[in-house]
């Protein structure tokens, strides 16, 4: 007699954009699913077919680790709505869910970056029907002034976003909202109603690595064993404060060597080409995707890490990596980067990005950091949780 084959219930992961750090969150979520025995499907846009993660999933051809490509629906009837990013992304997530749920049984949806549509939830509802879902928010900053984090003072806008947040976490189907900001769950516990979804902290991870011997790392990278190095790492854009940093370093009498590692956008690439000759010593520029091995060598070899970001009020995986490798950082005082840097005494903090301030911070970093009086307990209480294992464990607890 024929036996019925029971199709597995899948976890659906939706992320249209695999640039920057977002593909990492997708990869880690899929790894967590695999480790817990949950089959999963990633949905992303067709433009990402050539992305390294998409190729990796396709090449593996695993029945429990699948990928599907869905593009936004072209609509000529809702031009005004499409100008609203929350409506536009909500429509995409709804479309992705609708298409995949026709062919697969979906038990849970995970959204690695819920900020796409989160503020639209009070008006649009869940894009996943009655299926439960978990989201991660990375850009919720409306509460920062209330908890002592430096951010733009926009009382009217922040009040509106606070109300939207309170209503959004009451959306039917939302099981848990995870936040990489440790202060948001604390704010939510005091300001949201009892019938709201759980708001919990998930430590922003960076791939677990151990520091390499600095001399060996420098040898592999072809660096001078006696020179001092300042690292700028990640997706290199103008918001990294790279323009101000380069201008400041051209004015320093004894500047360290600048290492700029990571894919640059077009305007930054143009800027670097025009200014690279003004830097002495000549910088090391790695304008490409950085492998895990090279990343480990870079953080092992450098003397300090630059986090003088502009207009960035969220968390930074680069900060976590610098902490893990015991490297001092130079950071702006804004947002969570400034908050963590101050509380954990990670390095000099910039009140502005003037050449004078940057020059002073570089000189201080290269001569007096890390401070020897710091004890492990004063720094580890916050940042020791920022491991990939902790991230996966937190995610799986909410998925169970």
From TrEMBL:
Q: Mind telling me which InterPro entries this protein's record contains?
A: Glyco_trans_1
Any GO MF annotation of the entry: glycosyltransferase activity
Report the SUPFAM superfamilies cross-referenced here.
UDP-Glycosyltransferase/glycogen phosphorylase (SSF53756)
EC number(s)?
2.4.-.-
- Annotated membrane-spanning segments are none
Q: Which residues form the Glycosyl transferase family domain?
A: 218-336
Pfam families, from UniProt?
Glycos_transf_1
- Going by the record, the broad EC class of this enzyme is transferase
Query: Which keywords label this protein?
Result: Glycosyltransferase, Transferase
This chain's protein is named: Glycosyltransferase
**Organism source for this protein?**
Paraburkholderia kirstenboschensis
């Amino acid at each position: 007699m024929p036996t019925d084959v029971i199709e597995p219930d899948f976890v659906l992961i939706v992320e249209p954009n695999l640039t920057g750090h977002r593909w990492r969150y997708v990869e880690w979520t899929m790894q967590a699913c695999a480790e817990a025995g949950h089959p999963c499907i990633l949905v992303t846009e067709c433009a990402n077919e050539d992305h390294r993660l998409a190729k990796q999933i396709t090449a593996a051809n695993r029945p429990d680790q699948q990928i599907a490509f869905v593009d936004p629906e072209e609509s000529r009837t809702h031009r005004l709505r499409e100008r609203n990013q929350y409506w536009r992304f909500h429509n995409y997530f709804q479309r992705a869910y609708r298409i995949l749920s026709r062919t697969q049984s979906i038990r849970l949806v995970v959204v690695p970056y819920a900020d796409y549509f989160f503020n639209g939830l009070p008006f649009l509802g869940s894009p996943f029907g009655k299926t439960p879902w978990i989201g991660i928010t990375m850009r919720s900053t409306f509460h920062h002034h209330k908890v002592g984090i430096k951010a733009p003072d926009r009382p009217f806008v922040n009040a509106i976003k606070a109300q939207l947040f309170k209503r959004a976490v009451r959306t039917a189907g939302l099981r848990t909202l995870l936040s990489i900001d440790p202060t948001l769950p604390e704010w939510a516990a005091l300001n949201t109603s009892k019938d709201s979804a759980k708001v919990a902290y998930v430590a922003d991870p960076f791939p677990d690595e151990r520091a390499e011997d600095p001399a060996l790392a420098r040898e592999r990278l072809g660096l001078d064993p006696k020179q001092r190095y300042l690292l700028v790492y990640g997706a290199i854009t103008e918001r990294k404060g790279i323009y101000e940093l380069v201008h400041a370093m051209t004015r320093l009498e004894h500047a360290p060597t600048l290492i700029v590692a990571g894919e640059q956008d077009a305007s930054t690439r143009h800027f670097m080409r025009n200014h690279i000759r003004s830097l002495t010593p000549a910088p090391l520029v790695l304008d490409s995707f950085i492998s895990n091995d090279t990343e480990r060598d870079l953080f092992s070899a450098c003397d300090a890490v630059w986090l003088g970001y502009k207009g960035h009020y969220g968390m930074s995986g680069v900060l976590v990596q610098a902490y893990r490798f015991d490297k001092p950082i130079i950071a702006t005082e804004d947002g969570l980067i400034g908050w963590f840097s101050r509380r954990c005494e990670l390095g000099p903090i910039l009140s502005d990005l003037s050449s004078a301030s940057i020059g002073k911070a570089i000189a201080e970093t290269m001569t007096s950091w890390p401070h020897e009086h710091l004890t492990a307990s004063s720094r580890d209480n916050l940042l020791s949780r920022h491991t990939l294992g902790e991230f996966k464990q937190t995610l799986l607890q909410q998925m169970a």
